[in-house]
């Protein structure tokens, strides 16, 4: 008992010795610890005026990174995403003219490709400056995070495209295969929008919360998959006798086969029923979601065997006979 009182009797000594002037919440914050390590360099008395100025600037940038730089970069990424959406919209309008789907309303957005290229290059320069600032603050510690490495890859890819690929493509000296590969790699720029998830504290909390129930979400998806497979097998085997019955209406037999005739079709029909697929709900309504009214909208009306809603009760009653 005396030993227990001795261990509990002087908590201040432990706190003063091991935690110092650091708050316990800050000890667990690696970013805050890194900032404090950077600020310790300000205590170094040696060095030229330029070196002292660089140390001072680095410490101030490290302290302002989360409050100012992250917010500014988040806004920059949002603007870049908006520009990419507008560029894709314009490309879609141009493609519509080529395939005969032109609509006069498409003229509301008429931006030259050169404008998008110029804006894209401006964003590439800004992201390069951001990368340089973060490298100056964190130095080699910057590459400990996978997302930071990915950001550096995106910046390098933008620079290669701007300084090498585009000039070579204009002169016709670049291999078409290499050009296509680089264009595919450029699609990864769209993933930059994911950076906003970790630039704001509210989004970081939300991502952590979502990550917590990912295992439960996986098991829920597995449960639904089992349900779809089981339902497809039960219904598919149940209606197979009707499909093979030559005395029944051939149109109904075709319709049932299109949706439950094979394992793939039956499982896909169950998936449409669970996910409220448009092919199901648009024709027969929610109460008949497991008996969809059309095959596949993408195949067009020529191959569709869609049922009229008023005919659904009659056809379903014939199934039960």
Automatic annotation (TrEMBL):
Keywords: Ion channel, Ion transport, Membrane, Transmembrane, Transmembrane helix, Transport
Keyword Ubl conjugation: no
Residues that span the membrane, as ranges: 68-87, 115-137, 146-165, 224-243
Highest rank taxon of the organism: Eukaryota
One function term, GO molecular function aspect: voltage-gated sodium channel activity
InterPro entries: Ion_trans_dom, VGCC_Ca_Na, Volt_channel_dom_sf
Keyword Transmembrane: yes
Coiled-coil zones: none
Membrane topology: Multi-pass membrane protein
Compartments where located: Membrane
GO cellular component annotations of the record: voltage-gated sodium channel complex
Domain Ion transport: 68-269
PANTHER family xref list: SODIUM CHANNEL PROTEIN 60E (PTHR10037:SF62), VOLTAGE-GATED CATION CHANNEL CALCIUM AND SODIUM (PTHR10037)
Protein name, entry field: Sodium channel protein type 10 subunit alpha
Gene that produces this protein: Scn10a
């Amino acid at each position: 008992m005396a030993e227990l009182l001795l261990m509990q009797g002087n908590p201040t000594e432990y706190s003063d010795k091991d935690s110092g002037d650091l708050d316990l919440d800050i000890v667990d914050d690696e970013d805050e610890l890194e900032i404090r390590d950077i600020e310790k360099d300000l205590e170094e008395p040696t060095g030229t005026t330029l070196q002292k100025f660089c140390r001072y600037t680095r410490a101030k940038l490290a302290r302002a990174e989360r409050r100012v730089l992250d917010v500014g970069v988040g806004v920059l990424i949002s603007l870049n995403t908006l520009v990419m959406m507008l560029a894709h919209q314009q490309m879609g309008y141009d493609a519509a003219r080529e395939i005969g789907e032109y609509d006069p309303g498409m003229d509301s957005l008429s931006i030259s490709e050169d404008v998008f290229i110029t804006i894209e290059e401006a964003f590439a320069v800004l992201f390069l400056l951001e990368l340089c600032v973060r490298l100056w603050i964190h130095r080699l510690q910057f590459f400990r995070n996978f997302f930071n490495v990915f950001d550096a890859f995106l910046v390098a890819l933008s620079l290669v495209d701007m300084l090498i690929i585009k000039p070579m493509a204009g002169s016709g000296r670049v291999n078409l295969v290499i050009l296509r590969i680089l264009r595919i790699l450029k699609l990864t720029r769209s993933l930059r929008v994911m950076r906003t998830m970790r630039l704001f504290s509210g989004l970081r909390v939300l991502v952590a919360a979502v990550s917590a129930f990912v295992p439960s979400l996986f098991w829920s998806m597995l449960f639904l998959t089992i349900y779809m497979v089981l339902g497809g097998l039960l219904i598919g085997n149940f209606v197979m006798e009707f499909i093979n019955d030559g005395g029944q209406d051939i149109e109904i037999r075709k319709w049932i086969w299109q949706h439950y005739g094979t394992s793939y079709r039956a499982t896909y029909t169950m998936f449409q029923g669970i996910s409220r697929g448009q092919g199901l709900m648009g024709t027969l309504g929610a109460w008949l979601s497991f008996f969809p009214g059309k095959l596949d909208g993408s195949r067009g009306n020529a191959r569709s065997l869609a049922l009229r809603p008023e005919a659904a009760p009659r056809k379903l009653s014939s199934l039960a006979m």
